[in-house]
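Subject: sequence -> structure tokens, single chain

Hey, anyone have a minute? Need the predicted structure for the following. Not urgent.
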Amino acid sequence: MEEEARPHFVHGCDKKRCGRAPPPPSQHSLTIYTFFPDQVEEKYQGRRVLVLKWARNLDNIAATCASIEGKRKKKARAVGSSTILSPSTEQEILRWINDFRAEGVPATALMLRIKALAAAKELGIPDFRASSSWQHRFKRPHRPSMRSRTRQRQVSPAELAKVAAEFSEMVQSKVAELGVSIVYNADQTAAFFEYLPSKTLNGKEEKTVWVRCGGKSKERATVMILGDPKVIHFLLF
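Reply:
Had a minute. Here:
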């Protein structure tokens, strides 16, 4: 199998035009071919500038790649250079979260974002977005993590369709037996007035997350819905 010819990206004359062979490809050209094999010649100069920048920062790139975290980085940035909120403001947000957790109230990522945006607005920082990367950086030094409350779900009967069909036949037979002319349909439903989220920010070292909910994530009241064949809906009771 013949080896594919490598483009040299050499600008200037060649043997046909100048009567001499072009110079061998430079190390920069080989680097461009290695990392950008499909690069068009029109964009060669931009890639060349990038490769020269890599060469100037070779020692810094090698030191960053030597660390465990540096191997996964696409850009090197000093720790704390992206921090927009001051440390005192972040401590205030952390105390705000801890106050909720002390009362057993879940603190979600959305609550953290809203609180951070409100703090940035008070400080006059219009460009702050409280993005997911900022939230990750905020949780790293303060060591909260997103925890989820788990609970075994209710299992439906295997013959649920059969039970529903038998109930429908029983109702129809009673209607015919008693001579009922109007059948009212009544059903129970839940009216939720408190809904606790299923996830909360909490310390990583804690194995048990306490949430004051009495085993329930929702507080509700049971109401009755009543209707008739004329599509008249009565008041809830």
